[in-house]
Amino acid sequence: MTVPQLYYFAIRGLGEYIRLLFTDNGINFEDIRFVSRSPEWKEAKKSTTFGQMPCLKHDGKEYAQTGTIMRHLARVHDLNGSTEDDATFLDMFFEGLQTREDLVHKTLPDCLANFEKLFNIHQGKFIIGDKPSYADYILFEELDVYTHLDATILDKFPSLKAFWEMMWQRSNLKAYLEKRKADGVWISVVENGMH
């Protein structure tokens, strides 16, 4: 079996969910990063299914689209809940998180209030209990991005804040997150002024 190869830009963005899942679960992977609009990216783009990233290549297969990659990894690595209801709940949570581009000052607090309620449906420190799922990495990354927009954004949402703080302390993630922070990894291409 080969080591999975993740192709994405040298930013956090949509590829970061996948990096977090791999890192926290101790899954070895090759993190191939490109500078946006670079000659290397233009060449690599020709070999991807949709000409987009993130792209995951593993054992001669290629997976495109963030949701597809996350769900694939969730099934392969048992991070998709233990029942069909769990898997559907995680899908609902994941789909609800994919609204970053549409967020405005009123929308974000409303969304967080909804996720605070959803988060509290199941007992445990993760979305559906005491074991992480693929949706936990997406939720964490989104919350981390939101704290960059407003450092106090989670103060009114104690369950989400406790989850975010707990994820920062996970042994496999902590060093990666600290390095990412110290390296000043951009959240998105727009943040870097490369849009």
UniProtKB/TrEMBL annotation:
EC number assigned by the record: 2.5.1.18
Keywords: Transferase
Domain GST C-terminal: 59-185
A GO MF term: glutathione transferase activity
GO process terms (BP): response to stress
Transmembrane segments: none
Matches recorded under SUPFAM superfamilies: GST C-terminal domain-like (SSF47616), Thioredoxin-like (SSF52833)
InterPro entries: Glutathione-S-Trfase_C-like (IPR010987), Glutathione-S-Trfase_C_sf (IPR036282), Glutathione_S-Trfase (IPR040079), Glutathione_S-Trfase_N (IPR004045), GST_C (IPR004046), GST_superfamily (IPR050213), Thioredoxin-like_sf (IPR036249)
Entry superkingdom: Eukaryota
Keyword Protein transport: no
All copies of domain GST N-terminal, residue ranges: 2-81
Binding partners and assembly: Homodimer.
Family that this chain belongs to: Belongs to the GST superfamily. Pi family.
Protein name in the entry: glutathione transferase
Organism: Caenorhabditis briggsae
